[in-house]
Amino acid sequence: MFGLVVRFTCKDEESAAAFDRLVETTIEKIRDGEPGTLVYAAHRVDGQPLQRIFYELYRDRSAFDAHEEQEHTRRFLAARDELLASVEVDWLNLQAGKGTTG
């Protein structure tokens, strides 16, 4: 399995609301059309109204690459930059877990 955690910090409350709308429409497409995407969860951070954290888990690296090539993903990546102050990515290698085959 292949995964990542991404911390997004929005510029302001208006940007955060627009980012949330963008995420909502993108996740609908991921849910419906990406069988290799096992988990794609967007979280708000308690006490940090401008931060969002994504947890993404893919069947393997090729499933992640397929995700990145999707039109909805490219649209998300292009639209998000004007809404964000920063993006931090941590790449993950599954060691062990519940609900996983690792």
From TrEMBL:
Record key words, sorted: Monooxygenase, Oxidoreductase
Highest taxon of the lineage: Bacteria
Signal peptide interval: none
UniProt entry tagged with the keyword Cell membrane: no
Enzyme Commission code: 1.-.-.-
Enzyme class label: oxidoreductase
Residue ranges the record marks as coiled coil: none
One GO molecular-function entry: monooxygenase activity
Keyword field contains Oxidoreductase: yes
Record-linked Pfam families: ABM (PF03992)
Database matches in InterPro entries: ABM_dom, AI-2_Isomerase_LsrG, Dimeric_a/b-barrel
Domain ABM, first and last residues per copy: 2-92
Alphabetical list of SUPFAM superfamilies matching this protein: Dimeric alpha+beta barrel
Record's protein name: Quinol monooxygenase
Organism (species): Microtetraspora malaysiensis
